[in-house]
Amino acid sequence: xxxxxxxxxxxxxxxxxxxxxxxxxxxxxxxxxxxxxxxxxxxxxxxxxxxxxxxxxxxxxxxxxxxxxxxxxxxxxxxxxxxxxxxxxxxxxxxxxxxxxxxxxxxxxxxxxxxxxxxxxxxxxxxxxxxxxxxxxxxxxxxxxxxxxxxx
Length: 152
Hints:
By secondary structure, this protein is mostly helical. It is about 60% helix and about 10% strand.
């Protein structure tokens, strides 16, 4: 795609969960036609598997935990709150997060998480038949988001 200012970009327009999205692969000539095509093909495979290729690429690029990742902020929240809890309760809270939440959304920046993504995570927990755990996780995740907003 050639922009009005003359810059040339490789982009893929796609639809995911009824939303139109665009994935950028880089600028021409920095990214060659062959590279752009291979990135496009990889993105289409991810899309065919029912996953959002934009999220997968951001996860691959930001594989290390950033300072604003959900897991980093959740552990910071945990460190602040654990002094007010009994040790056994604090262990259960952290265990639930490590088992159900961090593997799914822990590496993602907290500002990029959406309510439908958190709801999907909670539905996965409910699908195992542990409704009380899902309820407690919802409360914990809500507290973590409030902590993130309050601390900036």
